[in-house]
Request: fold
Amino acid sequence: MDKVKLALKTKLDVTRLSGEEMQTEFGLEYGIVNPFTIYTAFHSNRVLQVFDNTIFQNILPPYTMMTNSGDLTWAG
Reply:
């Protein structure tokens, strides 16, 4: 989280939303959230989705990113 704070140039605390917060605040769950969807609730609650530049690298075939899989054991 220190690297995220540096990248955002903030002194505010940076934390990952808990599973409970995702459910109670947004009606969402880890594993079924599409990170590229804009949830208006995120903006009103000061939630910022952060990605590093590796999402743009073609590392291994099929050169895609798994999102919204619905099963946390499927992604590595």
